[in-house]
Every structure is written in structure tokens, then in C-alpha cells.
Amino acid sequence: DETEFRNFIVWLEDQKIRHYKIEDRGNLRNIHSEDWPKSFEKYMKDVNCPFKIQERQETVDWLLGLAVRLEYGDNADKYKDSTPDGAKNADNAAKNAEPLINLDVNNPDFKAGVMALANLLQIQRHDDYLVMLKAIRILVQERLTQDAIAKASQSKEGLPVALEKHILGFDTGDAVINEAAQILRLLHIEELRELQTKINEAIVAVQAIIADPKTDHRLGKVGR
């Protein structure tokens, strides 16, 4: 818009550039005059703008750059330590992405939250709330992720078992009872195997919580 463009030029000169003395800005301020383009062209020459009057986009960009340089020169101490908004937003985004960086483990709200989670997930209490938090993380990763839930929801199809190939070890004198005893023994063995698997998982989880970071079992040594 022509009127807005002229007002913009006058505002830049009045507020930021101030190349003319106040009494010499009359022709530039008279934005409704037919001679305003000539006054503007003269102004561009006076401020040493390298662009022509027809190159408005380039002229506006150059004048804004001039205004910024002059504004900074007048207030160098104020602006020299300023941080761009983009950098501030990036720093804030980084902090928000890592909410545990500044976590206060002694905060009562933190302790209460960990304790509530531990009770909800039926995790053994520990004096160190960070240890409980790690245990919660392990449980969530192994049992409550989408993949873990989907895997646990899958129905297990058993394989047919030939009872005659499994020796009972004793004889009740009744073929039907013998067969029932064989079935119970096989079910008991399956339960023992499942229990052993859970024990192994618990051992691994405990080791992950209390392991010394300097210990590397792959190297066959402890410490550095």
C-alpha cells in the first residue's frame, strides 16, 4: 500500500535513522504530495542507499538494516549481551526435552510421586528413591510398553504331549490315576520353568539397578 509505505519511510527517519534535522524532514513527511517520490529519491541518495527508487523491496531491506545498525550503535551496551529469541527457545526446548536434568531428588513431591508409583506397581520400597525410580522404569519398559503388552496378550498354543514317553516313577495300580499323575507332574514342571524365568528376570533387574558403573563383566574385571 503506497500510503503505508510512505508512512513507514517517515517513521524510520523520525524514530531510528534521523539523518535529517527535524526541520529538514518536511518534504519527506508530506506523504500526500505529488512530489513525494522526488523527495524520497533525494533521501535515498543522502543516506547513500545503493538501490533505485523502483527497487522497493531491496530499499526497505537496506533501510531496515541501516536502522538496526544505528539503533545498536546508540545502545551497544544494552544489546551486546542479548540472546536471540530463537536461541532462548532452543535452550528452553532442550530443557523441556530433558525434564530429569534438574530433578530435585529431595523434593517432597518427587518422593511422594515415586512412592505412589511404587505402590501402584507393587514394587518393593527402598530408602533411595532414585533406586525405586529405576525399578519403576525397568518394570514399565519390560511389562507396560505396547510391545510388551501385545506379546503378553498373545495366546500360547501348547504342543501335544505323548504321555507314554514320560515315566511317572511310581504305579498307583490304576491306569487312569497314573495318567492324571503324569499330567500333574508335567504341569508342575512347566510352573517351575516359568518360576525360574521370573527369578532370572528379577536377578537381571536387580543387577541393572545396583550394578557398579565401573564393572564390566565382558572384560572379566572390576574397576578401571
From TrEMBL:
Belongs to the RTRAF family. PANTHER family: CLE. It holds the Pfam family RLL. InterPro entries: RTRAF (IPR019265). This is RNA transcription, translation and transport factor protein. It comes from the Eukaryota.
